[in-house]
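Hi there, hope your week has been kind to you so far. Please have a think about how the structure follows from the sequence. I've dropped the whole record in just underneath, so have a look:

_____
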Amino acid sequence: MKNLLIRTFLSTIGASSAYLVSDGIARADDWGCEVILCLSNPGGATQYAPCRPPIQRLWRELARGHGLPTCNGVGFSASRPRYEPYACGEGFRLTTRTSDRGAEASCVSTTPQTVANSECDYDQDGGPLSPRWYHLGGQRQCRRYVTRRPSVRSKPHHVDLTIDGIGTQRVWY
């Protein structure tokens, strides 16, 4: 029954997982192979019902500090589990600074952003985030690197997974 479910699963996700099939039979003899098959789904590891139990078990094991299970005959590698609780939107990068209040994370724009002209009109300290006048498109604009609060990830743990040279994908849990 398990192999039938895995074959059905493979037929639904298409050729991207064909490397895990030999003569039409999936190598899903154990939990590790099920995990690899499910993680290789471009639609997400839990898109299909047969994948939910093995992936939920994987999340529990990773949360306990264990690594990814193995699957004989399939070349894959995974990074150690990592923890990144904060995220920044596109055009921003996560930075951390330490002060007397402890470490504080923030998002800083990757390029200067246009701000109110009044920010450039008062005396500046000249630091890297200070506003400056720029000449863009024949106009004078006050610009500076903008900081924002980072968002908190609902799934802050991840591993980077590479399967048979297909590429690396980050799996969040």
